[in-house]
RNA sequence: UGCCCGAUAGUGUAAUUGGCAACACGACAGAUUCUGACUCUGUUAUUCUAGGUUCAAGUCCUAGUCGGGCAGCCA
């Protein structure tokens, strides 16, 4: 899906912009950065940004830094820093340099004094409420702050006093002197520094003034000699301010380019909502396998490659779009189909007895080993042995006493192949007092053994099974989408996104599985044949795996069957 | 009723930058199949509206419509 045919590969608008800037010499190399705020776990939307920034650096033989935008100590924590680094690495990327905006606090401070000296910044004593009032509205211009024309010396002294901790939190701010009448509100003398006594996760209590995003972000980019500062659409209105700071400081001036953030159906992506899901324990944590977080997807069993493919697949544009979640599911199916070893597992067992199964001399049932192909998509994966006897468990769904001709599975009087085993013919059923089928009786055809079948006999269906005596019981967690509606973010009046929480997003059941499945390592995705892709959860214990369902296989029959209802 | 941005099959993205509107996914039909998976074949359907420039407009211009963003001492 991402392997584009040879020849011209279409370039998206950011690559075209880069090509143009390289051609004109505005920049001589590509330097990007991924700049998360460490106030939450990364989600799949961030994965798009990571793939973009690191991917561009790879394509253009440039560099990409990881930089934490840690300018608000009230929200940021070291736990988040660590998870972010782990997620970026797991996705398959390595940053050239690791930075923190907080590393630049001293330089930022010096530059602020430089702007004060140039008469382009001033200390303002307006309260938060007053600042808002003076800012004006979307349709009316703002008014100049009464402190706007303070002298340079006074500004300098007050600003130094701010740094020295002489004023209470919120008492004064440093503002850029731009234009209170600008139609772009970001240019109406934006706040550069606020007084805030909070312990920073890296600088501790060294500072009691902290730079605002607009003042810290572009300057950090500049210090790192970033060429292309790529961000999401909501910062488009900030670009004039980004440019203003670089121009008025006379420093290296990166080009900010905005792209549309990723939205996916049936998911919420806002950090606030994800935090709420965690805090209120609707999910088990940031890495709950239902979460759209990178750590959640990883635990679920998604592979880095599938996520990268997905990000490449959705494209790059300035249009706010929502990607159908089936594309994400397709991406992981496509990858796992190539790499996931196959196993037999039964989720809803029905007893099946082979009445003509050979016995050992001592009267016990013979045990044969089936040589099953590990992965038909990659023969080099080899074979595995699956024990088979005359007493099996099959999927209840795979048997019907009577069924339409379109039903290719087992029915009374019908035949079917046992995957990696024999063709069997069903001649009888056993029912309980309520008339429910509790056992299926079949004969097997010894001439049809898998791999050495010369009988020429063909049957329409193949079903999976496990040997009742050899099967291990394991816990299975069948996951489904977290929400019941396509867009849980837009709610009807009086409802919140939690009203659309899918109560069936996790269903825990027991599966009967072939013995080899006991040895699969945590994180190794496998296919339960005819069912779906599964992956042992970190909750697994030795000999006691817990399997997460990553995604079911496409189910054409299920679609046909449900249409007939 | 301010400023900025956007609009191409159902969804998402292309269109050699003014030159035959295409690709993927979906849906539908079929082939194949020791996974009703995978794979393969076929069908379906697209330039927001109205003007203008031009031999030629998805692309340029004007106006409108619709959608998104912006009034944190958040990022």
What would you say this structure looks like, in words?
The structure is a single chain. The protein is an alpha/beta fold and 565 residues long. It has 3 domains: 13-259, Rossmann fold, CATH 3.40.50; 271-341 and 474-564, Ribosomal Protein L25, Chain P (Beta Barrel), CATH 2.40.240.10; 345-464, Ribosomal Protein L25, Chain P, CATH 2.40.240. It has 13 helices and 27 strands. It has a 7-stranded mixed β-sheet, with helices on one face. Helix 8 links the parallel strand 8 (228-232) and strand 9 (255-259). Helix 2 packs across helix 11 (304-314), helix 7 (213-223) crosses helix 8 (239-249) and helix 11 (304-314) crosses helix 12. The longest helix is centred in the N-terminal third of the chain and has 16 residues, at 44-59. The radius of gyration is 31 Å and the shape is elongated. It starts with 12 loop residues before the first helix and ends with a helix. Residues 1-7 have low confidence and may be disordered. It binds one RNA strand of 75 nucleotides through helix 5, strand 6, helix 7, helix 12 and strand 21.
CATH architecture of the largest domain: 3-Layer(aba) Sandwich
User: Cα-atom Rg, whole angstroms?
Assistant: 31 Å
Per the CATH scheme, the topology name of the largest domain is: Rossmann fold
Low-confidence stretches: 1-7
Q: What is the CATH homologous superfamily assignment of the largest domain?
A: HUPs
Just give the CATH class of the largest domain: Alpha Beta
The overall pLDDT, averaged over residues, is 96
Based on secondary structure, the structural category is alpha/beta
Q: Name the shape in a single word.
A: elongated
Q: Estimate the strand proportion.
A: 15-25%
